[in-house]
Amino acid sequence: MKSVLMKYMTKYTSLNEEEQRRIIDELTIKEYKKGTILHRQGDVPKKCYFVLKGCIRQYAIDEMGKEVTSNFYTEEQAITIFNHDKLDKLSSYTYTCLEDSILVVGDLDTEEKMYNQYNQLEAMTRKMMEEIFGQVQDDFAAFIGSTPEERYKSLKMKRPHLINRVPQHQLASYLGMTPESLSRIKKRVHKEIN
Questions:
Q1: Which parts of the sequence belong to the Cyclic nucleotide-binding domain (predicted)?
Q2: What digits encode the pLDDT tens for the residues 23-35?
Q3: The domain defined by 2-119 carries CATH number 2.60.120.10
């Protein structure tokens, strides 16, 4: 698992191997069981995460009481909870483990201490966030401009592992359709391929 973290540090920093090992030794890596809620909608976030193994679902409960899935985080993805612009600092989302998971857990209260101790860490985090933000923008633009079938085909091409790892009703919510529509689209796409 530590090799995954070293890969990221090598990609985003010029820290030598010894410095990377010291940082990794200070990180908290935790195992979570399937069904564990990492953070609830309406709470003030205190942690951030990096997925080493597992699948985490991000969702919100809307005014009608319906769960709306907005993302799934899998191996080598960072989970950041942006709420700095909100006056009350409350999170708009719940994050829950869909599988047994192993996560790097960052404490937002001690983040500054780590940045001061390892100045390249802040630059690394910024670069990762810029990359994530750019991808989110691209994904959102593609989502808005596509049909439900195009969304499914895009998911099948970009993140095929989700199709069998995630409950279909949650996958349908993520794609902005009903489970019945997703089932019909999957059958149609399967026929096109065969």
A1: 11-57
A2: 888 888 999 999 9
A3: yes
